[in-house]
Amino acid sequence: MIVHHVQSDGAVVDPGGRPVGRLPIADGAALVDVGRTEQLSAIVDVLADGSTDPQPVHRQDEAYVVLAGRARAVVGDDATEVGSGSILIVPAGTSHRFVDPTDGFTAVAVFAPPLA
Predict the structure, then answer these.
(1) Are β-strands 78-83 and 61-75 bridged in parallel, bridged antiparallel, or unpaired?
(2) What is the DSSP letter of 21?
(3) Distance between CA 66 and CA 84 in Å, rounded?
(4) HSE of 75, CA atoms in CB hemisphere, 13 A
(5) Which element (helix H / strand E) includes 96?
(6) 28-31 long-range Cβ contacts below 8 angstroms, 24+ apart
(7) How much is the pLDDT for 21?
(8) Residue 63 — pLDDT band, cuts 50, 70, 90?
(9) In whole angstroms, what is the distance from residue 30 CA to residue 22 CA?
(10) Is the pLDDT of residue 55 over 90?
């Protein structure tokens, strides 16, 4: 079992309160790999206000659960506002990104099958 906690500032910590490392991916954007199994992987995606979301197209299905903040989700040719509590499902092979993140946008993304 893997257990991590996402704090209100987007920091990810283990059950002992120790930080789990972030991987900066662009100015104002960072990912935290929070675990994987043979069938799925999960990351925490943290975007600073106004930052750019450098999303590649994935070969995995992906589900996002927004924990904090707001953004416009652009999936293919469609766009919608998302915020804390929103769930967004992106089929494999579909372009997607978050635009104009605010209020400490933080989301958990689950990939199936797992990211390589």
Answers:
(1) antiparallel
(2) P
(3) 5
(4) 18
(5) strand 96-112
(6) 28/52, 29/53, 29/54
(7) 76
(8) very high
(9) 6
(10) no
Reading the block at residue 78, the tokens are 């469609």
- By CB neighbour count within 10 A (0-12 exposed, 13-18 middle, 19+ buried), where does 13 fall? middle
Residue 57 pLDDT grade (very low, low, confident, very high; cuts 50, 70, 90): very high
CA-based nearest residue to 45, from 36, 37, 34: 34
Query: For 12-27, what is each residue's pLDDT tens digit?
Result: 888 888 888 777 777 8
DSSP string, 6-48: E-TTS-EE-TTSPBPPPEEEETTEEEEEEEE-SS-EEEEEEE-
Side-chain-side CA neighbours of residue 6 (13 Å): 21
| Neighbouring C-beta atoms of residue 110, cutoff 10 Å | 17
Amino acid at 112: A
Determine the Cα–Cα distance for residues 43 and 18; give it in Å rounded to an integer.
17
Paired tokens of 68: 């904090």
Q: Residue type at 82?
A: V
Query: What's the pTM?
Result: 0.85
pLDDT of 36 strictly over 80: yes
For residues 109 and 63, the answer to whether their CB atoms sit within 8 Å is: yes
